[in-house]
TrEMBL record:
This is Probable nitronate monooxygenase. InterPro entries: Aldolase_TIM (IPR013785), NMO (IPR004136). Nitronate monooxygenase that uses molecular oxygen to catalyze the oxidative denitrification of alkyl nitronates. Acts on propionate 3-nitronate (P3N), the presumed physiological substrate. Probably functions in the detoxification of P3N, a metabolic poison produced by plants and fungi as a defense mechanism. One of its GO terms (molecular function) is monooxygenase activity. The keyword Oxidoreductase applies.
Length: 317
């Protein structure tokens, strides 16, 4: 498989990013992926600047290979996280941004010579990001785990590829070599996988949550937050069902007030990741969960996905 100049410029062996997942993607997971030749990305999520700085130090102590940081733009700590990223610019290969438009932070990252790769869910946002200087975009379909947009990867990706002149990375619903080969055919230069790395051996996700992903079937996920908060793909569990029931009931009222429901969601990913709590925890995961059957070291995942895609692309089946 021929790696694109952009992927080569990042110093990667495989065109595979590990999604910067809040609470999940710590310095250890990111370093494991980077050491094996993919791009590990620390997920800042809602963490404080201090926590993010610690995870960057952990990753730096475990790998000499490039890694990135995902800045979650909805975080209450986003400003301090941006400062931490700027202060560690020599250790960080790139920044991905989730949940919105990086706006003002763009200028700061660019001034510090940090590559910025926003996650986009529409052609309009992809074009806007190109205009303001994004180095690439990650086109993420609504199959993916976590916060989602409205379009599928299959439909969104080729339209983004046609609309911009910067490299496009595909995310959402990709967990094996068939997925990687398919999105390369659609014009992507690489993939970002979240759900498959959620169950990597090096991932700190609670065993109960990991088991739920490994046991999931094609229709095991649902979307919460269509009314209250932000749409999010999670595995069906007690928490998710209760959340959607409450938001639908509220939506039917003349003057809906979602504040109590949103409160219920606060800390729900943390409770899932750290405690495996299905009653109050959000098991964020993508539709592709049903394809993932075992916990494996990150290095094995990368090798398996790459080798399968490589064979398919060279005509072997
Ligand atoms: C548990 C979980 C947490 C996530 N947190 C974030 C986040 O904080 N920021 C972000 O940009 N994307 C986040 N994502 C999305 C992933 O980075 C990735 O783009 C997505 O999982 C790809 O789709 P897949 O799950 O089908 O592989 C999260 C995904 C999961 C499953």
């Amino acid at each position: 498989m021929q790696l694109s100049p952009f992927i080569q410029s990042l110093g990667l062996k495989y065109p595979i990013f590990q999604g910067g997942m809040a609470w999940v993607a710590d310095g250890k997971l990111a370093a494991s992926v980077s050491n094996a030749g993919g791009l590990g990305i620390i997920g800042a999520g809602n963490a404080s600047g201090e926590v993010v700085a610690h995870e960057i130090e952990v990753a730096t102590s475990l790998t000499d290979r490039p890694f990135g940081v995902n800045v979650m733009l909805l975080s209450p700590h986003v400003e301090e996280v941006v400062k931490v990223v700027l202060a560690h610019k020599d250790q960080i290969a790139l920044v991905t941004t989730g949940a919105g438009n990086p706006g003002d932070y763009f200028t700061q990252f660019k001034a510090a010579d940090i590559k910025v790769i926003p996650v986009v869910g529409s052609v309009a946002l992809a074009k806007m990001m190109e205009r303001v200087g994004a180095d690439a975009v990650i086109a993420e379909g609504m199959e993916s785990g976590g916060h989602i947009g409205k379009l599928t990867t299959m439909a969104l990706l080729p339209q983004v590829v046609d609309a911009v002149n910067i490299p496009v990375i595909a995310a959402g619903g990709i967990a094996d070599g068939r997925g990687l080969a398919a999105v390369l055919m659609l014009g992507a230069q690489g993939v970002q996988m979240g759900t498959r790395f959620l169950v990597a051996t090096e991932s700190k996700v609670h065993p109960i949550y990991k088991q739920a992903v490994l046991k999931a079937k094609d229709a095991s996920t649902m979307v919460t937050g269509d009314f209250a908060g932000h749409p999010s793909r999670v595995l069906k569990n007690q928490m998710a069902k209760k959340y959607v029931k409450l938001e639908k009931a509220e939506a039917a009222k003349d003057h809906p007030d979602y504040s109590n429901i949103e409160e219920l969601g606060n800390g729900s990913l943390r409770r899932a990741v750290l405690d495996g709590d299905a009653k109050t925890g959000a098991y964020m995961a993508g539709e592709i969960s049903g394809l993932i059957k075992k916990e494996q070291p990150a290095a094995e995942i990368l090798e398996e996905v790459y080798n399968q895609a490589d064979k398919l692309l060279s005509g072997e089946h």
